[in-house]
Amino acid sequence: MRRHFKPDHTKPKDFDLFWQETLNKLDVIDPDPIVTATEHSPDHPELVLEYVTYLSLGGVRITGLLTHWHDNLPRPLVVYSHGYGCQCMPQWSWAETGLNCFGVDVRGFGRSHNALTAPSHWGWVLSGIGSPETSVIRGAVCDYIQGAYVAERILPNPTTHHTFHGVSFAGALALKSASVLGSPDLLAVGVPTFGWTEGRYIFVKSGSGAQINHYLANHPERLDDVMLVMRYFDPVNFADSVHCPALIGLGLKDEVVPAKTVYAI
């Protein structure tokens, strides 16, 4: 397999404008963070887990998990999310090394399940597939970005470095958020999904890509429209705007996120 691979350019002409306008819409929303519950580490009295809800794009309320040190020491912040169809877990072990961590359950999943009011019966990824403006993926990226804002806002201690982290579905969210925001200090992702829209249609055998393929098998006349919408969320089209150091992992044999779709990024 070729280790250096770049598919044909498919970036929509208004791609940058679309994301700038999306970020502008998000910027005017006061996240109104609310801590709904708190847990304490039995081993470290100053280490706490706070369940935080906040407002994101469209005025929906998202839930995040802030595992942090309740002190005045400057610390790095890691923002992360979850896999497709999953939810975040508290990252106690990361925090015990001295980090602050904020996990985002994006709309439609986990503790933010009810934030997606009209999920598609074809699968989460097909929700709002009629246009990039209505796509649930747009909202999910905004949930991640807003989570980074919220964590910075409510932490009691200053942040020294920002890392965006994620694996698979969350890896794609982290990469896209890093691009739209102008990059954190570090991007660390594994097998980021949604890469190379056209290639996914050919190579993916399960996961969100299989849901898209199943939908298109029943609606072949919508192929071009769906491919166009997904290009607005293809990590290939975000990668050139990530300017921080990046660590990206891939699986050489992966039916959910085939290696070719990661090499394309």
Short structural summary:
The protein has helices at residues 15-27, 92-96, 136-154, 169-181, 197-203, 208-218, 223-231, 259-263; strands spanning 34-40, 47-55, 61-69, 75-80, 100-105, 159-167, 186-190, 246-249. It is an alpha/beta fold and 265 residues long.
Commentary on this structure:
The mean pLDDT is 92. The chain has helices at residues 15-27, 92-96, 136-154, 169-181, 197-203, 208-218, 223-231, 259-263; strands at residues 34-40, 47-55, 61-69, 75-80, 100-105, 159-167, 186-190, 246-249. It has one domain: Alpha/Beta hydrolase fold, catalytic domain (Rossmann fold). Strands 1-2-3-5-4-6-7-8 form an 8-stranded mixed beta sheet. The relative contact order is 0.15. It is 31% helix and 21% strand. The protein has 8 helices and 8 strands. The longest helix is centred in the middle third of the chain and has 19 residues, at 136-154. The chain is globular and about 60 Å long. It is α/β, with parallel strands linked by helices and 265 residues long.
CATH architecture: 3-Layer(aba) Sandwich
Q: Which percent range describes the beta-strand content?
A: 15-25%
Number of domains: 1
| Multimer state | single chain
Secondary structure elements and pairings:
Blueprint (H helix, E strand, L loop, with lengths): L14 H13 L6 E7 L6 E9 L5 E9 L5 E6 L11 H5 L3 E6 L30 H19 L4 E9 L1 H13 L4 E5 L6 H7 L4 H11 L4 H9 L14 E4 L9 H5 L2
Parallel strand pairs: 4-5, 4-6, 6-7, 7-8
Antiparallel strand pairs: 1-2, 2-3, 3-5
Helix pairs in contact: 3-4
